[in-house]
Automatic annotation (TrEMBL), chain A:
One of its GO terms (biological process) is transmembrane transport. CDD domains: TM_PBP2 (cd06261). It comes from Aminobacter aminovorans. This is Glutathione transport system permease protein gsiD. The lineage of its organism: Bacteria, Pseudomonadati, Pseudomonadota, Alphaproteobacteria, Hyphomicrobiales. Signal peptide: none annotated. The keyword Transmembrane applies. Residues 97-287 form the ABC transmembrane type-1 domain. The gene is gsiD_4. The chain crosses the membrane at residues 21-44, 103-125, 137-157, 206-227, 266-287.
Automatic annotation (TrEMBL), chain B:
Keywords: Cell membrane, Membrane, Transmembrane, Transmembrane helix, Transport. InterPro entries: BPD_transp_1_N, MetI-like, MetI-like_sf. The keyword Membrane applies. CDD domains: TM_PBP2. This is ABC transporter permease. Belongs to the binding-protein-dependent transport system permease family. The lineage of its organism: Bacteria, Pseudomonadati, Pseudomonadota, Alphaproteobacteria, Hyphomicrobiales. Its main location: membrane.
Length: 301, 324
């Protein structure tokens, strides 16, 4: 019971500290607001937009490549124009936002879970297990993200789950390294000794007691990694080796506009790109601020 | 030192070996090599002959042995599309990529170090905030979209620079390069800028951190007490200390420049190995894909090895902590 209340207070003050830190900087506050608006748009947007861009009955091929603010054959206005198939860009972007965010968040959360578990294990057991895990981490971090992802997808082929898998493989090591470093400091503290002398099981000490105290670096890296994952997915999809055309993310929408860019039809690639930039930029600003507030010692990169 | 180098070298060889295993498993075990290595329009008899010629009827271990031996001889098979050895295709395209990466790195250093210095010397000022927000923007800009915007602004709207291709190459010291002619330079500016922006942000952050860590140290105070000008303190004493981490990180980043060149080359139709890779993936030209992956990974591992060795020469603590 006491451990529970202690943990509760600890986590509460941690979240409060994070929120205070963000609200203390106008720049980060605006960025957080943008993030929240975009998340809400990704969740509720697709049911509110004027058109389902992937319902063949709803799109009209005669409306293809209309500039922003032009009227459709049936009288509605395309605020951001239409693409090569006559889809409303605005609606397509809201759907794309959902896909991009979904893939980014999902792969980020899995990488976080895998990396945290391995990092805690390495720190707690030490010895051979530690060496083995950390060698693997060094190996992974030695390669640039995009090279590993390219390599995996070149071998595996396209697909949502393959992209998620590739993103998890390139991201887990970041979490493992940070969690291990934080857990090594925690391991030497008295509460861990106390928990061990009470006869608690190792998993319980690891996940129930040490993990909550390792949260700050996990949250900071998690935020930045989600931004990275979204951007990596967009890049891979743009190159044509990421998501298939049936699951269009923002990267794929931008790729669609690549062909028409030279003929001056800028809106097909500019607007989805701006949305992608707003998303990644605001997540990065929030993450950067969190790092300053929660963990000033964390290496700047 | 020798032991350190030998150990690092054997570790590197091991990683190269692992990569070859991964690529082999990816191509030969997960995918069906018959579909991958034999053109789809081959007749049944041709298929049978090819399966025997490629040794695909033998066990996986035996096949891996052959693959490894061939790879060590630089033989990755012939490209279906170009009908020439995959490895020679890679080496034909490699100089264009290296040139692009080299120019991008130069741009990143020439702009990044001064900007980082300015930001680091006046922390929390408006200039610092602006430069640092700019560097987050540089990290956040999707590289491919940024390239398209460069084309849109400078090629389509303003019409100042060409949007694709490598342009005319000339020779400097017997090496074909775009730096030798105006046409080549004009073609190089946009792709190199596009590739440089991410590294530029990185260099700014590294320099700023270095400056902020170095400025409060005693030897700087001593230099001030000695009456040295601020200019000299920064350009000699501070720079010397922050250059080591910058050089190391940038050295390692050269590999990611080559990887990131895939994106830039695709957008600007730059005839390097990155564009070759994407084209080969699209038309399922697997021998070229395999050759690219192995050559680039090997190159990358040996760049890291070289950086490690140089770093351990500059800072002996690294090598001492390893041998403990």
């Amino acid at each position: 019971m006491t451990a529970l209340t202690h943990r509760f207070q600890e986590s509460q003050s941690f979240w409060a500290r994070s929120l205070r830190g963000i609200l203390g900087s106008p720049k980060a506050t605006i960025a957080l607001a943008i993030c929240l608006i975009l998340i809400a748009t990704a969740i509720f947007g697709p049911s509110l937009v004027p058109q389902n861009p992937y319902d063949l009955a709803a799109i009209d091929f005669f409306d293809a490549r209309l500039p922003p603010m032009s009227n459709s054959m049936s009288g509605t206005t395309y605020w951001l124009g239409t693409d090569g198939q006559g889809r409303d860009m605005f609606s397509a972007m809201v759907y794309g936002l959902r896909t991009s965010m979904g893939v980014g968040l999902f792969s980020g959360v899995i990488a976080l879970a895998v990396g945290t578990a391995l990092g805690l294990t390495a720190a707690y057991y030490g010895g051979r297990i530690d060496t083995l895990i950390m060698r693997l981490v060094d190996l992974m971090l030695g390669f640039p993200t995009i090279l590993v992802a390219l390599m995996l997808l070149a071998l595996l082929g396209q697909g949502v789950w393959k992209v998620v898998l590739a993103l998890v493989i390139v991201q887990w090591a970041q979490f493992a390294r940070a969690v291990r470093a934080a857990a090594l400091i925690e391991r030497g503290k008295e509460y861990v000794e106390a928990a061990a002398s009470l006869g608690l099981s190792k998993p319980r000490i690891l996940f129930g007691h040490m993990l909550p105290n390792c949260l700050p670096p996990i949250i900071v890296i998690g935020t930045l990694q989600v931004a990275n994952a979204i951007s990596a997915e967009a890049t891979l999809s743009f190159l044509g080796i990421g998501l298939p055309i049936t699951e269009p993310s923002l990267g794929l929408l931008i790729a669609n506009g690549y062909q028409t860019l030279l003929s001056g039809q800028y809106w097909i690639s500019v607007y989805p790109g701006l949305l992608l930039l707003a998303l990644v930029f605001s997540i990065n600003i929030v993450g950067d601020r969190l790092r300053e507030v929660l963990n000033p010692r964390l290496s700047e990169r | 030192m020798t032991i350190f180098i030998i150990r690092r070298f054997s570790q590197s060889l091991f990683v190269v070996f692992l990569t070859s295993l991964l690529v082999f498993v990816g191509v030969y075990a997960i995918g069906n090599p018959v579909d991958i290595l034999i053109p789809a329009d081959a007749s049944f008899a041709e298929r049978e002959a090819a399966i025997r010629a490629l040794g695909l009827d033998r066990s996986l271990v035996a096949q891996y042995g052959t693959f490894l031996v061939n790879a060590l001889h630089g033989d990755f098979g012939r490209s279906f599309v170009f009908n020439q050895p995959a490895i020679s295709l890679i080496f034909q395209r490699l100089p264009a990529t290296l040139e692009l990466a080299f120019v991008a790195l130069t741009i990143a250093l020439m702009l990044g170090i001064p900007l980082g210095l300015i930001a680091g010397l006046k922390p929390r000022s408006v200039t610092d905030e602006t430069i640092m927000t700019g560097s987050i923007l540089g990290f956040s800009l999707p590289n491919f979209w940024q390239g398209m915007m460069l084309i849109m602004i400078f090629s389509v709207w303003l019409g100042w620079l060409p949007s694709s291709g490598r342009g005319e190459t000339g020779e400097i010291f017997g090496i074909a390069t775009s730096l030798a002619s105006w046409d080549g330079l004009a073609h190089l500016i946009l792709p190199a800028t596009n590739l440089a922006l991410f590294q530029l942000s990185l260099v700014i952050r590294l320099t700023r951190t270095g400056v902020r860590e170095t400025m409060p140290l005693d030897f700087i105070k001593f230099a001030r007490a000695k009456g040295l000008s601020e200019r000299r303190i920064i350009s000699v004493h501070v720079m010397k200390n922050i250059l080591i981490p910058i050089v190391t990180v940038v050295g390692m980043e050269f590999g990611s420049l080559i990887a990131f060149a895939v994106v830039t080359e695709t957008i600007f139709a730059w005839p390097g190995i990155g564009k070759l890779l994407i084209d080969s993936i699209t038309v399922l030209d697997r021998p070229v894909v395999v050759a690219y992956l192995l050559v680039v990974v090997t190159m990358f591992i040996f760049i890291n090895l070289a950086v490690d060795i140089v770093y351990s020469m500059l800072d002996p603590r690294i090598r001492l902590s390893e041998t403990q």
